[in-house]
Specification:
By secondary structure, the chain is α+β, with helices and mostly antiparallel strands. The chain contains three helices and ten strands; from the N terminus they run αααββββββββββ. It has a four-stranded antiparallel beta sheet, with no helix packed on it. The protein has a four-stranded antiparallel beta sheet with strand order 2-3-6-7, with no helix packed on it. The chain has a two-stranded antiparallel sheet with strand order 4-5. Residues 84-111 form a coiled coil. The chain crosses the membrane at residues 37-59. Keywords: Coiled coil, Membrane, Transmembrane, Transmembrane helix.
């Protein structure tokens, strides 16, 4: 009976020891599980913290870059605005200068038209300048101009003709005179040619001719060109105005107006 009791007590002890071992094994498993859980949580937290730090750093860097970019853009805008203002000022100054130059050009053109002679006045001014450069007394020139009258007291026009000399025919009477021989007119032309190209004795009116107007004092004036020709000369206080035109074969018709000068 005592042996049975001992066996029961030993069995109970073994049971309790097994329960204790089971309880301790379960406790170790839970402790290891909690330890792994908190270790994983700590790693996750550390990773999250690192990730958050990197994100915050990148964000801050982005903010700084944006601030730098904003400052750069503001500086560029300020520079462009200043350049724009300078260009607008320069454009305004150039427009003002252009208007001033245009007004000055208009004024100079009007002044030029007022002061610089043109047409007949320019031709007369040129003649006066030539005479003065040639040594003519200005007072004498002014006197002559002052004596010229608008109404001329001229003799009736007189028309004559003369044979024009050619390289093949120079002999004979080849001149004519006006005012009782005070003025003599002569000339020479180029020979006309027939259908075969041979030279004739008469002149060719389509070719240039040479006309000589001579006074009794030896003064001679020469006119050259294709007929008709016009020439004015003054001889012994008389003004002669000649017109030379083709006449009959070999001849030149000459008309002379004779007026007192001046």
């Amino acid at each position: 009976m005592h042996r049975t009791a001992d066996l029961g007590s030993h069995s109970s002890l073994l049971f309790r020891s097994g329960l204790l071992h089971m309880a301790l094994g379960r406790y170790d498993y839970e402790r290891r599980y909690r330890r792994r859980f908190w270790a994983g949580f700590a790693k996750f937290g550390l990773f999250a913290a690192v990730l958050l730090g990197v994100g915050l750093f990148a964000y801050q860097m982005g903010i700084e870059q944006l601030k730098g970019r904003d400052v750069t853009l503001r500086e560029e805008i300020s520079t462009l605005s200043r350049q724009k203002a300078e260009l607008e000022l320069l454009a305004s100054q150039m427009q003002h200068a252009a208007r001033t130059a245009e007004a000055r050009a208009t004024d100079l053109e009007a002044r030029l038209q007022r002061e610089v002679p043109s047409g007949d006045l320019a031709r007369l001014a040129g003649l006066v300048s030539e005479r003065l450069k040639g040594g003519m007394d200005p007072n004498r020139l002014a006197f002559v101009i002052a004596q010229v009258q608008a109404v001329r007291n001229c003799q009736p026009a007189e028309t004559k003709r003369f044979a024009l000399a050619t390289p093949l025919l120079k002999s004979g009477n080849r001149s004519t005179s006006f005012n009782n021989g005070a003025v003599t007119v002569s000339g020479e032309g180029q020979s006309s040619r027939n259908a075969q190209g041979n030279a004739e004795s008469w002149y060719d009116p389509a070719q240039p001719v040479t006309i000589k107007i001579s006074g009794m004092g030896g003064k001679e004036t020469v006119a050259k060109g294709v007929l008709p020709l016009h020439q004015t000369v003054v001889i012994d206080s008389t003004e002669y105005r000649f017109t030379f035109a083709p006449g009959a074969r070999s001849f030149v018709d000459v008309t002379a107006d004779r007026c007192p000068f001046p």
